[in-house]
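A reminder from the course coordinator: this example appears on the midterm review sheet, so study it carefully.

Given structure:
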């Protein structure tokens, strides 16, 4: 539970106003990283200028304003009452007029104002944790989009190499056709393969442009300013043991928001119970008698009788909200742990797939291509056999890229669940 002194509340309000002023000022500045882009630079740009985070900053300010409002006392009331005028007989006109000017003040009992302030303070705590959760969501999305750019760059390089390989094959076959060693149909097939490779290269370049724009949108830039996303796609960082990751889940903002919500609901329940106690209203005033030109003091107090409304519904609702918050936390914890175990298993499977592809399958396919190309030049293999081996190598290299992308995306999801630092190893 949080306990705040007046000085602490003022200090909190001061630093929060500074934070919001800096956030708004940074949002006003154009932020668009130039040159080579690392994940750290992308994250920094998003934290400083992401439109969703800029909008969320105002929610913190609103929560602080609610604390100020909750801490205010009830306003006094001033009233005037006119009696015995415009009647009949001796009460005609204003000859017997009695005028009462009064001032009344509601005195809240049971510490209602203090509890209102406590509820508002817990609301600020929940808002702060929610803001942290939004930041982690943004970090996770930046990481996913950064990975998409890195993967797209790798696919462009892969497509360029595939086009070059198809071009070399087409040139070699063209020489053989001119020498009369290969039929014309094989040159046509080679040219079709080259055309298809060039089309796939242009498609890869188009997808790269799209992912670059999508990433730049995370910091509100209309166009990307960076030249290249710099990272090692096939460097696979290890993660902690599953037991360690499971322990860290409970400290993530996704779960801490329920802890904060529990405190908020408990405070609301205490406030609902206290609100069942009636408040006192004291008044004091001056009454003037027009007929005798005299005046006198009047005083009084009033208190509502709790005959019908004892805030039964409000108390019951607050009790149910406490139970609901506990149930939601348990459900979220079970779901988070289940998701973590599944993601960890998938990530380890992706690692094994990458290692098998890069250490075994791709080298063997490359060796088979070299041997088949050498045999084709000596007439031992047909063109279709050469193309088949070549396509198998390209498919294995593409599968390795897919597996590496899956690994890093799964890692980013695990780090989001556990609130760990989200990283992609740089070159």
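Designed residues:
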């Amino acid at each position: 539970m949080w306990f705040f002194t007046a000085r602490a509340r003022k200090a909190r309000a001061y630093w929060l106003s500074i934070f919001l002023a800096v956030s708004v000022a940074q949002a006003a500045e154009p932020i668009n990283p130039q040159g080579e882009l690392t994940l750290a630079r992308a994250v920094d740009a998003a934290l400083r200028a992401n439109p969703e985070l800029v909008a969320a900053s105002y929610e913190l300010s609103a929560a602080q304003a609610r604390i100020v409002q909750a801490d205010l006392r009830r306003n006094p009331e001033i009233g005037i009452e006119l009696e015995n005028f415009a009647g009949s007989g001796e009460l005609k006109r204003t000859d017997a007029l009695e005028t009462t000017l009064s001032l009344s003040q509601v005195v809240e009992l049971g510490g209602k104002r203090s509890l209102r302030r406590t509820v508002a303070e817990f609301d600020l705590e929940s808002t702060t944790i929610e803001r942290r959760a939004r930041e982690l969501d943004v970090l996770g999305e930046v990481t996913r989009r950064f990975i998409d750019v890195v993967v797209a760059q790798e696919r462009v390089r892969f497509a360029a190499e595939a086009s070059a390989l198809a071009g070399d094959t087409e040139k070699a076959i063209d020489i053989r056709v001119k020498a009369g060693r290969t039929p014309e149909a094989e040159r046509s097939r080679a040219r079709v393969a080259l055309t298809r490779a060039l089309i796939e290269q242009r498609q890869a370049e188009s997808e790269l442009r799209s992912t670059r724009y999508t990433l730049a949108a995370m910091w509100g830039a209309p166009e990307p300013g960076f030249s290249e996303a710099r990272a090692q796609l096939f460097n696979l960082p290890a993660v902690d043991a599953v037991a360690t990751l499971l322990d860290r889940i409970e400290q993530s903002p996704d779960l801490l928001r329920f802890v904060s919500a529990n405190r908020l609901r408990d405070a609301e329940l205490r406030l609902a119970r206290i609100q069942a106690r009636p408040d006192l209203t004291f008044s004091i005033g001056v009454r003037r008698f027009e007929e005798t030109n005299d005046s006198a003091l009047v005083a009084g107090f009033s208190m509502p009788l709790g005959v019908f409304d004892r805030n039964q519904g409000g108390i019951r609702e607050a009790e149910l909200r406490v139970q609901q918050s506990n149930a939601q936390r348990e459900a979220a914890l079970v779901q988070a742990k289940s998701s973590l175990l599944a993601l960890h298993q998938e990530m380890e499977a992706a690692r094994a797939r990458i290692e098998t592809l890069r250490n075994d399958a791709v080298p063997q396919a490359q060796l088979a291509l070299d041997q088949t190309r050498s045999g084709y030049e000596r007439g031992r293999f047909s063109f279709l056999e050469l193309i088949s081996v070549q396509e198998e190598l390209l498919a294995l290299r593409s599968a390795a890229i897919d597996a590496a992308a899956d690994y890093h995306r799964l890692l980013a999801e695990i780090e989001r669940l556990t609130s760990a630092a989200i990283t992609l190893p740089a070159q």
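The mean pLDDT is 82. Residues 112-178 form the longest helix (67 residues).
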